[in-house]
Automatic annotation (TrEMBL):
Family: Belongs to the isocitrate lyase/PEP mutase superfamily. PEP mutase family.
GO molecular function: lyase activity
Classification lineage: Archaea, Nitrososphaerota, Marine Group I
Protein name: Isocitrate lyase/phosphoenolpyruvate mutase family protein
Metal-binding is among the record's keywords: no
Gene3D superfamilies: Phosphoenolpyruvate-binding domains (3.20.20.60)
Pfam families, per the entry: PEP_mutase
Keywords: Lyase, Pyruvate
Superkingdom per UniProt: Archaea
Lyase among keywords: yes
Cited CDD domains: ICL_PEPM (cd00377)
Length: 298
């Protein structure tokens, strides 16, 4: 079964699909080994590891490469955050083909203008694209996908831009009608109230997605009882990695030896295990055996 089908199955079977953000193949693998359902290849985290702003600075190619590397290292679905779709409906048509062919399970596009800025930036630019132009992107995405399971997530930024609940709902219905498979309703409030108000008003059939970064105290059972079908923990892994490195480097800089930092790092063996270094030996043996059978080794 391909990963698009897998993601659709998860949405059908699970009360809530738990997605965790990653920024490269290793962090994606760790997300998988810790039991999450899917990986979010987020633009904030991927921009951060290139040390550039999450402001449409990296190109589609760089985001695509990051998500593709995750596909190579994982068995669980990868959901690619494609910002505004890197252009207009023509660009979206192209990325759907490219991402679907690469084994990515689905893409998320948001209804802001290009270049976008991260939605959680204080005083950031959150100008909305017209509903019509975003609907055109969703229509193009739908036409381009080969497998109907490939998920098109339409991200509604009306609450982020401050334009209000009515506009958020109106747009969500329009995006569903145009063929969006899921609706991501984003908020930068510290309480989940506006997300719950949205989900209680929502009469559409597309599952709802939430990213509780600012309203992090929200409980899983509250999300479930408020009709949220997918939760994305978008950037915690990136922020934890940043903090761990900062702490370690602070200690290392003035240390006379490395005794005190040993407990702050994973062992070489743990990394060897993750990167399947131990398999190299058995693979070499296997090839040796085959070479012997072919008469190259006596
Ligand atoms: C991301 O993780 O890149 C997102 C979510 O798009 S947010 O940072 O909240 O905009
Ligand atoms: Mg993003």
């Amino acid at each position: 079964m391909n990963q698009s089908d897998n993601l659709v199955n998860l949405l059908e079977k699970k009360e809530i699909v738990k997605v965790c953000g990653a920024y490269d193949a290793m962090s994606a693998k760790l997300v998988e080994t810790h039991g999450f359902d899917a990986v979010w290849a987020g633009s904030f985290a991927i921009s951060a590891i290139h040390n550039v702003p999450d402001a449409s600075i990296l190109t589609m190619t760089e985001f695509f490469d990051a998500a593709s590397n995750m596909v190579q290292s994982c068995q669980i679905p990868i959901i690619a955050d494609c910002d505004t779709g890197y252009g207009d409906a023509n660009n979206v048509r192209h990325i759907v083909k490219k991402y679907e062919n690469a084994g990515i399970a689905g893409i998320c596009i948001e209804d802001k203008t290009f270049p976008k800025q991260n939605s959680l930036l204080k005083n950031g630019n959150n100008q909305l694209l017209s509903e019509k132009d975003f609907v055109a992107k969703i229509l193009a995405a739908n036409e381009a996908k080969q497998n109907k399971s490939f998920s098109i997530i339409a991200r509604v930024e009306a609450l982020i831009s401050g334009i209000g609940m009515d506009e958020a709902l109106k747009r969500a219905y329009a995006y569903e009608k145009a063929g969006a498979d899921l609706i991501l309703i984003h908020s930068k409030k510290i309480s989940p109230e506006e997300i719950f108000e949205f989900s209680e008003s929502w009469k559409g059939s597309s599952p709802l997605v939430a990213i509780p970064t600012t309203y992090y105290s929200v409980k899983m059972d509250e999300l479930i009882s408020h009709n949220i079908k997918m939760v994305i923990y978008a950037n915690q892994t990136l922020r934890a990695a940043h903090k761990a490195l900062t702490n370690l480097l602070t200690k290392m800089k003035d240390a006379n030896n490395m005794d005190k930092i040993q407990n702050e790092m994973s062992s070489m063996d743990e990394i060897f295990k993750l990167q399947e270094m131990f398999d190299i030996k058995s693979q070499e043996k296997d090839i040796e055996e085959k070479l012997r059978k072919l008469g190259y080794i006596s």
